[in-house]
Amino acid sequence: MFPDKPCLLVIDDNSDTRARLQTALSDDYTVFCLPHGRDVIAQMELAQPSLLIMDLRPPDQAQRADWDAIVVHAGDKDVPIVYMAANLGLPELRERIASILSQGEKK
Description:
By secondary structure, this protein is of the alpha/beta class.
């Protein structure tokens, strides 16, 4: 879809987190951001991301089924996932993304 940059899909319910990651990563990657939900799988099909960045756990039990479906769909499509935790800083996140993408360039 965007041959010059790998595509990342950020999935997080916190709009501030999504905006922060969009800003921090958009120089090196094409970044799409969505809250959790059923629209994520449809967006995965459209964007064909190289990597997902998502919460370590679903935000609440009501969204558990959607979160599980996203994880299964990513596995079916061989899309790696970087799970975020509150204490994961941007330098560490950038390092994880680069490491995963360097193992198999998928754009």
